[in-house]
Structure formats: structure tokens, C-alpha cells
Design brief:
mainly alpha; Alpha-Beta Plaits; 24 helices; chromosome
Length: 934
């Protein structure tokens, strides 16, 4: 009886949809998998966090129905479970190949039978149907198909981002990402694995022809992974440490500069900072770090190296992202101003602290980058307001290069006519003409940053001036001296001592009073070690009338946006990584791979499915891996199985009968009868000897009543004495023990190759030995099955025990983590209370200091006002006395003059003069008159 074959390509999907599921299913996906595995074998679980939905595919319908009936509640949270009929999973099409073990050519079959020395063919198909072996995906090399020259190129399809199968290394990375982080080292390890997974995804999706610059997405001043790495490696700078010097304060951390190398991988987007974050970082440095240079208790070496490293990191982020906008230009300009300021402020520091050559190289790189940015923005139609300033800086750095002026002539007219560029050209002219007086006058009249750049030429100009003075003032015979004070003035030295130190380093001397320099031309020589320039406080640093941050910024400082910024944390409260979309995609592929591996393991552990009651169809293929089997042999007798000990007798075929020929026909296997039927053709009215109908069972299924299986421990032999349906007894000899008649062989009547042949004598098979062998083999198979089942039970028990141990360990770790979090929370609360208390104490102290300062200022003001009043009164009294003194003098003189006039008048009106005084009185009067003030 034929059975209809299932249509090819038809797959039953057993998928359910769970909506409004608990959040724990997404936080820990193993929880969701364990929950749905309770209802049956799960093939795949698809997570959709945005919709709070899960798609679960089961292996069979019973598991799906069980989940639909029972699932829907987890820890008090009720969610909806329905069957999903919309989702269709794509499955690979398998090509049905014919069984390569069987050849359908009759000539080949006849030749094989003749070589086997048997009367009939001894080849049997023991498979009543295709074996239940899972199809193994084998990747075959496709034949190369050469394209014709006239064929038009087809559009290429985009490659998938993630492959459908991942390697063991990728699976290990996914396993690391799913772990719980209990320490800083664990967090760094998980983030490192996450970045490796993202790099794998990017490598698969990148096309070299369409590569673009990486766009940064890091929201912090320092990426989270770098913070964890530097904290584990103890690379925390002084300005990034938390209170007490323990660990790193994430709010103060700034990305460190990393030197590029050949084996260094390209940075990921989360490792690069966009322009807005770079501006926030530079604002933090200008507000909080740069102004510390003026503090006496600050280590200038740590200050400079920290700022140099962090500004270099900013410039590297700009370069790696290929940024060219107004914001990036402003950042590079600020980096250049920082190096210009340091060239004058740190000029006297030790070379281990500050190297002028390295600082100049960094400044040159900044200015070179600005040149390219100005050019690119000009092509876009944008202009930068600070371009003349930095074009002038470029000129001032190249005053000794005469060919550099050609580049100046290529600038735009408005740049050439700007006051900054004009000043730079004047300085170049004075230096070229060796006019040292004009040079230092220009330095004295310029801005602070221009003076900082020109400070590198001070030794050159002063040395040229000394040589000029030696040529001008040194005669051939005698020596000439020059005033130290005048030389200090024209060469802009800081003091007389610095002037004397400079000339003495070149071999010149001074007089005994050290106020004049002896211009001795033969004694002039270059020093053994270069002269080290000291800070120019009066000439250069005195020009700075704002903070260092404002000098570097070039304007007023921007708002403090960094104060309200909260650093990124990729881990939740339990220490699990918050999965990003990129990692989620790789994670889903890894979970599919794990599900497939688990299914393969389960199928391998299952016993081979040899016994089956499925009805064989004559139209099925003979390939053991194909879904259907095609029968080769036709039955000799209906309702009869040759190998099974059924309640029928297997009689020896007569000379005119073949066991493989249809009943009621006496034909040769290779004869040329009227019907032209082959011995291997299908019988029209009979079934396969391995098929089954309503009256007979398959040879590999359990027979009904008292019949026993071929592989069982039956007492009856397969070929022993049996009863037929009619109750007649046949011979106890085996079917193969007694040879048939002379004409019962396959070549009995006629040789297919022509001529008569003598029939060959078939081999005699001893039935008892075969029965013993089969019984022993059955016992061995049964024992093996028992051992295999026992081994599986032991492995299952061992696996459950290991899972229980892991579960207990996980509980312990979770409990420890909970306690640690509680302790940390309590410690944080306590620390916060202490900080608040300290803040209150500091506020009280600050208030007391302010009160004391206010009282002191008030007292000082009162005292000063009283003192002023006393001075005013005293001065008024002195002024009054002076006026009275002058008035008395004037009155006395007036009286004297009046008295003299009266006396003269009296003498004039008296004809004779009579003295009214004696001679003595007149003498005394004359003496007093001489002593009076005139």
C-alpha cells in the first residue's frame, strides 16, 4: 500500500509570542530561557526589548501547546502568551540526491551476481524507510561559473553584518559579556570583550570602497573603558584622583593620549569624543587646571605634563575623526596658545620638566593643522575670525627663514593687511636688518602671546648687538668700556645682574665697580654650554592682564558645562552590562548557535532510530539521508517476510520459482518473456517484503501476538521450522541451506552472455551458527543499549548536580554582592553625611573668615578716616599758624614804617632837631634796628 508523500519544502513552525514580559527576562536572558524550557524543548528565543516581547520556537507541537496552557506568570507578573502564525523562519532548501549505494543498471547487477557465486542476488535493502538521522549541513564547493564577456554585470548584494555562525572565540567573548562584574577588573574585561565583538561586526560590514571617517559618540571627557583600564593599572593622574587619593574620580578624568603604532587597531566610535565633548573637556582644563600654574604649592612638572598630554589627546581625537569645523578650529587654536604661553613661562625650567624643542614641535603641528583647516573652510565659503592672529604666529616662528616670505605673499589681501601680519613683517624687517633697538621696542609694544613667541629670539638679537658694539667701540690699541645701565635698557634685560651675567658668559668682563663693561674683542668667545634664558617677567609676563585660562581661550571663558555632566555607566545595579544594539545582534547570533549545538548534542545522545513503523513507499529514494526511500526488490509472496519469524513457513522455491519474482509467474530473472519484466521491477499486485499492510507487520517492528523481533532473544530461528497460514509444515532447513533444482539458479535456463553454463554450487550456510551469532549479537546490542542509557542517566545526574552547585554558587555570589552593595550604600550615605558636615563646617569657617575680614576692613576704614581727619585738622592748624605768623610780621612791619614816617614828618616840620633821648638810648635803638628782620 502506497503512502502519500509530504510536499517538499513544507515546515511546521511551533512559535509562540509572549508580550508584556517581565523586565528580568531582558536583564538576564538565561532566566527567560530556563522559564520556557520547562514546557518543552526550545529551539530559539528571540528578544525584542523595545516591545517587551519574546518569540519562542519549540521543537514540537506538544511543547508549544503545553506552553500555551501553562505559561503566562513569573514571580507574580502576569503576561500574555499567544501562538504566532505571522513569523516565518527561513530554512535552507536541501537538494534530494539519489542513493549512491545502488545502481539501477541491470547489466551491472547481473555481472555482480555472477561474480558472487550465488544462485540469486544476496543484496537486500534492510531499510523500510529513511533513517531518522538529522541532516548534517555540508558546505559544498560550488562549481566556478565563468561569465561571458558580453554579460552585463549584476548589482552586488550587500553583505550581511553578522554571519549566521560564529567561531569559538566569538562565543567565548559573548559569554564574557554576559557575566556579572563584581570589580573594576571584571568591568574592564567585559567592556574589552564588548569592543572585540563590535570590531568583528565592523570588519564584516566594512567595504573598503565606502570607508568614511569614524564619528565619535563618547559622551564623557574620558571613555569608560579607559577609566577602568587606567584605574586597574594605577595610571591615575594627580588631578583625577578622588578625595583621599584613592581611585579615580570619573567626573575629573580626562582622556589620556596614546601613541599611535603599526599594530594599533582603529578606534571605535565610543572611544572618540565629538566636538561638543571636546569643547567641554577643554573648558574644564581652562577653568580648573590651567590657572593652578600661579599657585606656589603646585608641582609645575605635573601641571605641564598633564595639560600637554590631555591637549594632545584632544588633537588626536580631532585628527582621527577628520573634523573640520569652527569648533574644531577653536580647539586647535587653544592648544596652540597653550604651547605659546608655556614657551615663555617655563623657559627657565629643567630640561626634564620642559623641553623647548618638543614644545616648539607641538606648536608647529598645531599651526600646520590650522593652515589646512583654514584652507578647507575657505573652500566651503567659511572664514575664521582668528586666522590673522595665527598667520602672524606662523610668520613669527619662521623669522630666520627667508624663503618663508613667499608663502606670506600667497595669503589673501585682507590677511596681509591685518595689523597682526603687519606687526610680524615689521619684526622680520628689524631682525633682518639687525636693528636690535627697534626689535626690543616692538617687543615692548606688542601683545603677551607675541612677546612669548619672540622671546626665543632674545639671545640671538642680544648676541648680535654685542658683536656690533665690539666692532664699533673697540679700537685697535686700548680698551673701551660701555655703561651696564645703558646696555640693560637697549637690550631689555631684566636687571643689571642679568646683563653682567650674560656678557660674562661670552668672555667679557666689567670694571671694579661693575657698572661698565670692558669691550675687549679678543676676549669674546662662545660659552662651552649654551646660555639658558631666564623668565622675562618685566618685558613679557607683565603684559598678561588676565588669567591663564582666558589667555589660552582667547576670550572670556565659556560656561562650566562639565559641572552638570554625569559620566556614563554601562553596567546596571547588579553589575551586568547594558547591551548595546551592536552587541545584541552578535549576542542573538551566538544564542542561535548555542541552541543549534544543544539540539545536536541532544540528538547525538538519543539512541539511533532504527525501528520504525512508517510505511515504505515504492516511490521513495534509497538515500538514507533523504526523507523518502524507493524500494528496489519486489515481494515473492504476499504477507510474507523473509527475515522475520512469523507464523508462516518459508518454503524452498521450486525450479520454476524465484523468491524475488511475483507470485503466479514462472519467469527467468533475465529471461525474455512476453511480459519483459525485470526481477527488480515492482509487482503490481503485491507489496514490498519490507512493507506492511493490514495483514503483515514490518520486519523491524514489534510483531503481534507471540512473534519476536529479529534482534530479540527468541528461541526460534529465523530460518527454522515455522507454520504457514494454512497450517502446513515445511522443512526445517534454511532457505539458503538446500540448493534449488538444476534450473532454479539465476543462470539456470540461459546465460545472458550466451551459451549453456553449468550452474554453480551455492555456499552452504549453517543455520545453528547463524542463530547463535544473532542471539549473541542481540545480547551485545541489548547490553550496549543498557550501558548507553545508564551512561546518559549518570551524565544527566552529574549535569544536574553541577547545575545545582553552580546555582548555589550564584546565590552565594548574589548574596555577597547584595551585602557588598548594601555596605557600599551605607558607606556612601555615611560618606555623604560626613561630606555635608564638612561642607557645613567649611561654610561656617568661611563665614567666620568673611566676618573677621569685614570687621577688619571696617576697623581699617574707620582708622583711616580718623587718621585722615586728624591729618586734616593738624594741617589746618599748621596753616592757620602760618597765616597768623605772616600776618603778625606784616603788621609789625607796617607799624615800623608808620612810626618812621611820623618821625620823618616831625623832623621835616621842626626847624631844629632836638633829641628826646639820651645818647645811650639812641645807641641801643640803633642796635635793635640792625637786628630786626628785613
Amino acid at each position: 500500500m502506497d503512502v502519500d508523500e509530504e510536499p517538499a519544502g513544507k515546515f511546521d513552525s511551533f512559535i509562540i509570542k509572549a508580550t508584556n514580559v517581565p523586565l528580568e527576562f531582558f536583564q538576564n536572558r538565561d532566566v527567560a530561557k530556563r522559564y520556557f524550557r520547562r514546557f518543552g524543548k526550545v529551539k530559539l528565543v528571540m528578544f525584542k526589548p523595545k516591545r517587551f516581547t519574546l518569540l519562542i520556537e519549540y521543537a514540537n507541537e506538544d511543547s508549544m501547546l503545553n506552553a500555551l496552557d501553562v505559561a503566562g506568570e513569573y514571580n507574580g507578573h502576569v503576561f500574555k502568551v499567544t501562538r504566532d502564525t505571522e513569523t516565518v523562519l527561513k530554512k535552507k532548501k536541501t537538494k534530494k540526491n539519489p542513493d549512491p549505494d545502488w545502481t539501477d543498471d541491470p547489466d551491472v547487477k547481473a555481472e555482480l551476481e555472477a561474480m558472487g557465486a550465488f544462485g540469486v542476488a544476496r543484496t537486500y535493502d534492510l531499510r523500510s524507510e529513511a533513517m531518522s538521522v538529522d541532516p548534517v549541513e555540508v558546505t559544498k564547493n560550488k562549481p566556478r561559473r565563468w561569465k561571458s564577456a558580453s554579460a552585463s554585470p549584476k548589482p552586488q548584494k550587500k553583505k550581511t553584518v553578522i554571519r549566521e555562525s560564529i567561531s569559538a572565540e566569538h562565543s567565548e567573548l559573548v559569554h564574557i559579556v554576559r557575566q556579572q562584574a563584581l570589580s573594576i577588573e571584571d568591568k574592564f574585561k567585559i567592556l574589552d570583550a564588548r569592543d572585540k565583538l563590535i570590531r568583528i561586526k565592523l570588519k564584516n560590514s566594512i567595504e573598503l570602497s565606502k570607508t568614511t571617517a569614524t564619528v565619535g559618540t563618547c559622551p564623557d571627557m574620558c571613555p569608560e573603558k579607559e577609566r577602568l583600564m587606567r584605574e586597574t593599572q594605577h595610571q591615575v593622574a594627580l588631578y583625577e584622583q578622588a578625595e583621599g587619593g584613592k581611585g579615580m574620580n570619573a567626573r575629573l578624568a580626562v582622556k589620556q593620549y596614546s601613541r599611535s603604532s603599526a599594530d594599533q587597531e582603529a578606534p571605535l566610535p565610543q572611544e572618540l569624543r565629538p566636538v561638543s565633548v571636546l569643547q567641554m573637556t577643554m573648558g574644564y582644563l581652562m577653568h580648573r587646571i590651567m590657572n593652578l600654574c600661579d599657585s606656589p604649592d603646585v608641582n609645575i612638572a605635573e601641571w605641564y605634563h598633564f595639560l600637554w598630554d590631555r591637549t594632545r589627546g584632544i588633537r588626536k581625537d580631532i585628527t582621527q575623526q577628520e573634523l573640520c569645523c569652527q569648533g574644531s578650529v577653536a580647539l586647535v587654536e587653544q592648544c596652540a596658545r597653550f604651547h605659546i604661553f608655556c614657551s615663555a613661562r617655563l623657559v627657565s625650567e629643567d630640561p626634564s620638566v620642559f623641553d623647548q624643542k618638543i614644545n616648539t614641535e607641538n606648536l608647529t603641528k598645531c599651526l600646520q593643522t590650522l593652515k589646512y583647516m583654514y584652507h578647507d573652510l575657505q573652500l566651503k565659503g567659511e572664514s575664521c575670525k582668528n586666522e590673522p592672529e595665527f598667520r602672524a604666529y606662523i610668520i613669527l616662528l619662521n623669522l630666520n627663514d627667508g624663503n618663508f616670505m613667499w608663502e606670506v605673499q600667497q595669503l589673501r589681501k585682507e590677511i596681509q593687511q591685518s595689523k597682526e601680519v603687519k606687526f610680524a613683517l615689521e619684526v622680520h624687517s628689524s631682525l633682518d636688518k639687525r636693528n636690535y633697538v627697534k626689535f626690543f621696542k616692538l617687543v615692548n609694544s606688542t601683545t603677551h602671546l607675541n612677546a612669548c613667541i619672540l622671546m626665543r629670539y632674545f639671545i640671538q638679537v642680544r648676541l648680535s648687538a654685542i658683536k656690533t658694539l665690539l666692532k664699533s667701540y673697540s679700537p685697535r690699541v686700548s680698551q673701551t668700556s660701555f655703561p651696564v645701565s645703558h646696555l640693560t635698557k637697549i637690550l631689555a634685560f631684566e636687571s643689571l645682574e642679568s646683563t653682567i651675567e650674560f656678557v660674562e658668559s661670552y668672555g667679557l668682563t666689567t670694571n671694579i665697580e661693575r657698572n661698565r663693561i670692558i669691550l675687549d674683542k679678543p676676549s669674546f668667545s662662545d660659552p662651552e654650554y649654551p646660555y639658558v634664558l631666564d623668565r622675562a617677567i618685566n618685558l613679557v609676563e607683565s603684559k598678561r592682564n588676565s588669567s591663564i585660562g582666558e589667555v589660552v581661550c582667547g576670550r572670556e571663558l565659556p560656561p562650566k558645562t562639565y559641572e552638570n555632566h554625569v559620566p556614563q555607566d554601562s553596567f546596571d545595579e547588579e553589575g551586568y552590562l547594558t547591551v548595546t544594539p551592536d552587541v545584541d545582534e552578535v549576542d542573538s547570533v551566538a544564542k542561535k548557535e548555542e541552541t543549534k549545538i544543544e539540539e545536536q548534542k541532544e540528538k547525538i545522545d538519543d539512541p539511533p532510530k532504527i525501528l520504525s513503523s512508517r510505511i515504505a513507499s515504492p516511490n521513495r529514494s534509497q538515500n538514507i539521508f533523504a526523507p523518502s526511500v524507493q524500494k528496489i526488490f519486489t515481494p515473492a509472496i504476499q504477507n510474507q517476510n523473509v527475515f522475520a519469524p512469523v507464523s508462516q513457513s518459508v518454503s524452498v522455491p521450486s525450479p520454476s520459482q524465484n523468491i524475488f519474482a511475483p507470485v503466479g509467474q514462472n519467469q527467468k530473472i533475465f529471461g525474455t518473456g512476453s511480459q519483459n519484466e525485470n526481477v527488480f521491477a515492482l509487482a503490481k499486485q503485491s507489496d514490498s517484503i519490507f512493507g506492511k499492510d493490514s495483514a503483515a507487520k514490518s520486519a523491524f517492528t514489534k510483531p503481534e501476538k507471540t512473534e519476536q523481533s529479529v534482534f530479540g532473544k527468541g528461541e526460534k530461528s529465523v530460518f527454522g521450522k515455522t507454520e504457514t497460514d494454512s497450517g502446513e509444515m515445511s522443512s526445517t532447513k534454511s532457505l539458503w541451506a538446500t540448493p534449488p533444482a538444476a534450473r532454479s539458479g539465476i543462470f539456470g535456463q540461459k546465460n545472458i552472455f550466451g551459451g549453456e553454463i553449468v550452474p554453480s554450487t551455492p555456499l552452504i550456510v549453517e543455520t545453528p551458527k547463524l542463530e547463535v551469532t544473532r542471539s549473541v549479537q542481540a545480547e551485545v546490542d541489548e547490553k550496549r543499549v543498557e550501558e548507553e542509557s545508564k551512561r546518559r542517566r549518570d551524565e544527566e545526574a552529574k549535569r544536574k548536580k553541577e547545575e545545582e552547585i553552580k546555582r548555589e554558587e550564584l546565590k552565594k555570589r548574589l548574596e555577597q554582592e547584595r551585602k557588598r552593595l548594601e555596605e557600599a550604600k551605607a558607606l556612601a550615605v555615611k560618606k555623604k553625611m560626613i561630606e555635608e558636615q564638612q561642607k557645613r563646617i567649611q561654610q561656617e569657617r568661611r563665614k567666620n573668615v568673611e566676618i573677621k575680614a569685614a570687621v577688619s576692613n571696617l576697623i581699617d576704614e574707620l582708622l583711616s578716616s580718623v587718621e585722615e581727619e586728624v591729618k586734616r585738622v593738624t594741617l589746618g592748624e599748621i596753616s592757620r599758624r602760618m597765616r597768623e605768623r605772616r600776618l603778625r610780621r606784616v603788621i609789625a612791619k607796617w607799624r615800623e614804617n608808620t612810626r618812621r614816617k611820623r618821625k620823618r614828618k616831625a623832623i621835616d616840620f621842626n626847624p631844629s632837631w632836638c633829641s628826646t633821648m639820651t645818647v645811650r638810648e639812641e645807641a641801643e635803638e640803633g642796635t635793635r634796628g640792625d637786628k630786626r628782620p628785613k
